[in-house]
């Protein structure tokens, strides 16, 4: 079967560039299906899904968008319409991959559509903003951001090389076969550099029981991605041993996953083992970026781009209460596991973030606010101690086998 790659973008202002991309894709033996999101001038490239249809799917007409002369509203309408028509095209097998090109507007429209596509579906954007913070464009999906280097404006010695390589990339992504998923139970685990030892050991324990474990790096997007999989009903259990994103949420750090972290698991009743891993640290970028109100706090420069700030007892108390309240809302089995000798590498005895009073504030808040039906287990070890990892894995295995804690 011939593979078809969708192309999304403004075929008026970027028609010449998309025509070049189309030729490069077809030269490699792939078909091309064009989605036109332009609203300014006449199209320079024929489309399979014209702008009029995309505008209508977005709840307006092309004539209305042109008459309004409101670029922001037009992009919103076209983003909404494009997301709908492309999801239909992908789910029905009309297209097998999707590529877009553009600046901020073109990237916003294309990425809106791509975020509606499932993980694993090939998606790539040649973008002028690919070298910056792409979180708002990529979201929780596997969108490949391909730096345009120069503006997407004409064919020159730089853009020719970029567009040619991008065409090769989307073709390669589209022709690659994915091994079918197995029927093992899918488990999510949250991890940070300061809990890697713990999570890797627990992961091995679960995999020995024929479970498939997905590990999410708690950088905000990681927690949001885990949340999206829980919401989609794909997870059989969660080993949430690294809840550090809550520290960033309450103190203005750069790795917040938002206030809905944990909601999907609770709503779905997914079995969870929760630990306050790395809640002793808030993440900022380079030291100079730390807000001035925190100047007197305890800091540790993890690397040149990440500065960690030790949380206070008050902040830990807030985190503990949030964790308890999120767990209380769950319709499925939940258990807390507390490491009394520190919640991270840096928070272990003798290390820069060792602060038993701050840790205790979090632990006490969990005990105070959690429902009586949710067990809270304590271990007189650091979170990275092998015994802690083994206990966490066994607790989750017990939940998944409808029994108490699994045997060691």
CATH architecture of the largest domain: 3-Layer(aba) Sandwich
Strand content: 15-25%
Mean pLDDT: 93
Percentage of residues in helical conformation: 25-40%
Distance between the termini: 50 Å
Strand order of the largest sheet: 7-6-8-9-13-14
* The CATH H-level homologous superfamily of the largest domain: Uncharacterised protein family UPF0261, NC domain
Radius of gyration: 24 Å
What kind of sheet is the major sheet?
6 strands, parallel
Structure, described:
The protein has 408 residues and is α/β, with parallel strands linked by helices. The chain has two domains: 4-175, Rossmann fold, CATH 3.40.50.12020; 186-400, Rossmann fold. The protein has helices at 15-27, 51-57, 62-68, 71-91, 104-114, 135-138, 157-175, 196-207, 221-231, 245-251, 263-268, 313-328, 356-369, 386-400; strands at 4-9, 31-36, 97-102, 123-127, 144-147, 186-191, 212-217, 237-240, 272-274, 281-284, 299-303, 306-310, 334-339, 376-379. The strands form three sheets. The protein has a six-stranded parallel sheet, sandwiched between helices. A five-stranded parallel sheet has the order 2-1-3-4-5, with helices on both faces. Helix 8 links the parallel strand 6 (186-191) and strand 7. Helix 4 (71-91) runs parallel beside helix 5 and helix 8 packs across helix 14 (386-400). The longest helix has 21 residues, at 71-91. The protein is elongated, with a radius of gyration of 24 Å. 47% of the residues are buried. The mean pLDDT is 93.
